[in-house]
Amino acid sequence: MVTNSTVLSDIEIAQKTEMKPIIEIAKKIGIEADDLELFGKYKAKLSTDALEKIQTRESGKIILVTSINPTPAGEGKSTVTVGLGDAFNRLGKKAMIAMREPSLGPTMGIKGGATGGGYSQVLPMEDINLHFTGDFHAITTANNALAALIDNHLQQGNELRIDQRRIVWKRSLDLNDRALRKIIIGLGGPLQGMPREDGFDITVASEIMAVLCLAANLKDLKIRLSRMVIAYNEDKMPITVRDLGVEGALALLLKDAIKPNLVQTIEHTPALVHGGPFANIAHGCNSVIATIAAAKLADYVVTEAGFGADLGAEKFLHIKSRSAGIRPEAVVVVATIRALKMHGGVTVNELVAENIQALSKGFANLQKHVETIRSFGLPVVVAINKFITDTEQEVQMILDWCQRENVPVALTEVWQKGGEGGIELAEQLLTVISKEKNKFYPLYDLSDSIESKVRTIVQKVYGGNDVEFSQKAQKQLKDFEKFGWSHLAVCMAKTQYSLSDDPAKLGRPSDFTVTVREFKPSIGAGFIVALTGEVMTMPGLPKKPAALNMDIDENGHAIGLF
After folding, report:
1. Is 87 a catalytic residue?
2. Which CATH number is 43's domain given?
3. Coil, strand, or helix at residue 211?
4. Are residues 156 and 229 both part of a single domain?
5. Which of 101, 182, 203, 306 could form a disulfide with 312 if both were Cys (CB 3.0 to 4.6 A apart)?
6. Which residue range(s) make up the domain with 241?
7. Catalytic annotation on 88?
8. Does a structural domain hold residue 538?
């Protein structure tokens, strides 16, 4: 076994890797240099012309990677996604990866970046985890430009009769900053604006992030931006961006951000990394443009959806698949021994120690996620993301459980071995795709009521008994029906740690009721957000944030990113 003293950190592995010029990577998938917009030697955006040229090509197969409910540190979905893409290429398949861009919130908080880990990473790791090509800055700027334009409209006479008590558009920042959740703006007299309550969301929770990730092209982007609801007037009727007349300005700010970013893995597999909505407070998937482009450029596309199958995968299948007209051929559910032991009752500080009893008890959580994916009519494969601290007996227990439950499974060692460690998983997927029929169907119809859609998700995906709607949520349901929004999909905002809305209820809880405290209309994105439990759209930092370990040396090399 490799000892901890000999293990290189993710950033050390990344910095020791010799990357190929991104022009060479692009040629592997038939993209010429003239169709790239270069950001230095190793990053590029696909041009609008390039995206148009490939639209008539036949699409490859999409494989979705999700997981069980994670520990606070995450279970390695990004790592498995990268390693699986590399494994397909090792098997001689033309494969690409489509992933989300990391947010600075978790990067500088507790979870770390989102470029994979070990020898299954997308590169340049430091750039992607920090400012990358500026997409998040553009989204933040567009979000806050809209906020400024709303307040200016109030200051200049309020022609739209906006009720300043019912402005729902918040400002945004791509950092965890709990002090900005609720603020007062406009203090200081008549020249400083209209005093009112406001607040900040983290950028990845901004509706503009969701709109960009679900837009089919620039024209669709502008249409979606125009129908975003920003406030209600004195008659309690919705006011949109179209009413304010600024959708063109917002689209202009996003004209480059909408183009997907091309990078590479450690093994030089092409990867499109684009967009980054969180899955616990947004829809949790990379951009439709990037996923479809990857499917046009490769025979197999490996993409991920945030957190567990109860969040990211459910939203991929109910929101992204519908919006984009795509479906996955199979789904990978990533499981780790440490997370299963957590769901079996072990505290986070004791997950490294072998605990067979807790591991066995934790299988209930894995079983529910497998059942959920199968309820959509999709083939599923469990990937055991092996850590160097896992014991042989623990690994064998999961293999035995999967065999008893007739669940295809693969031991996956991509963190330590790169693509080689994902070959068993890739081969399992190829077998499953060829043998099992894909009967994908959503669990609810868009014609169902919002209340019915929420109840379906709670009962069929979470395993709960029922839903309780607060008085505010009940009133909103009536208003939304009056406004003609009942046909939209539902995006559940819920804790990622539990199948329920209570993060303390681990494993496979039963006999629980989910409480929806309020709804948030994301009409531009095409869904209604249901806020449950105590989930926040602006997270806070932990007691000892990852930023404490970050630095830069005298040669400009990053230190402490993971």
Report:
1. no
2. 3.40.50.300
3. helix
4. yes
5. 306
6. 135-249
7. no
8. no
Statement to judge: residues 242 and 184 lie in one domain: yes
**pLDDT tens digits in sequence order for the chain, 562 residues long:** 344 446 798 999 999 999 999 999 999 999 999 999 999 999 999 999 999 999 999 999 999 999 999 998 788 999 999 999 999 999 999 999 999 999 998 888 887 788 999 999 999 999 999 999 999 999 999 999 999 999 999 999 999 999 999 999 999 999 999 999 999 999 999 888 889 999 999 999 999 999 999 999 999 999 999 999 999 999 999 999 999 999 999 999 999 999 999 999 999 999 999 999 999 999 999 999 999 999 999 999 999 999 999 999 999 999 999 999 999 999 999 999 999 999 999 998 899 999 999 999 999 999 999 999 999 999 999 999 999 899 999 999 999 999 999 999 999 999 999 999 999 999 999 999 999 888 999 999 999 999 999 999 999 999 999 999 999 999 999 999 999 999 999 999 999 999 999 999 999 999 999 999 999 999 999 999 999 999 989 999 989 998 998 899 998 889 888 8
Q: Are residues 336 and 212 in the same domain?
A: no
CATH code: domain of residue 204: 3.30.1510.10
Q: Is 77 a catalytic residue?
A: yes
Q: Which of 43, 61, 77, 517 is catalytic?
A: 77
Between CA 165 and CA 256 the distance in angstroms is 34
Kindly state the tokens that stand for 68. 């069980």
The single residue of 87, 138, 279, 530 carrying the catalytic annotation is 279
Please pick, among 71, 79, 203, 269, the residue that the annotation labels catalytic.
Answer: 79
Q: Which of 100, 222, 338, 494 is catalytic?
A: 100
Phi, psi for residue 532 in degrees, rounded to 5: -115, 160
Q: How far apart are CA 526 and CA 536, in angstroms?
A: 21
**Are 273 and 411 members of one domain?**
yes
Residue 100 annotated to the active site: yes
Both tokens of 406, joined, read: 């007739």
Whether residues 308 and 383 fall in one domain: yes
CATH classification of the domain holding 520: 3.10.410.10
Q: Judge if 151 and 234 occupy the same domain.
A: yes
Residue 72, classed as helix, strand or coil, is coil
Q: Which of 43, 111, 417, 517 is catalytic?
A: 111
Catalytic residue check, 512: no
Residues 323 and 178 in one domain: no
| Own/partner long-range contacts of 12-16 (Cβ < 8 Å, ≥24 apart) | 13/118, 13/119, 13/121, 13/266, 14/115, 14/121, 14/123, 14/124, 14/125, 14/126, 14/266, 15/125, 15/126, 15/557
Domain assignment present for 21: yes
Which residue in 88, 136, 200, 387 is the catalytic one?
387
Q: Is residue 544 part of a domain?
A: no
307 is catalytic: yes
Contacting residues for 132 by C-beta, under 8 A, at least 6 apart: 43, 101, 261, 273
- Which one of 406, 435, 464 terminates a domain? 435
Are residue 244 and residue 102 in the same domain, yes or no? no
Our answer to whether residue 376 is catalytic in this structure is no
Q: Taking Cα atoms as reference points, which of 431, 331, 398 lies closest to residue 371? A: 331
Single out the residue of 127, 414, 412 nearest to residue 273, CA to CA.
127
Q: What total number of domains does the chain contain?
A: 3
Instruction: Look up 387 and say whether it is catalytic.
Output: yes
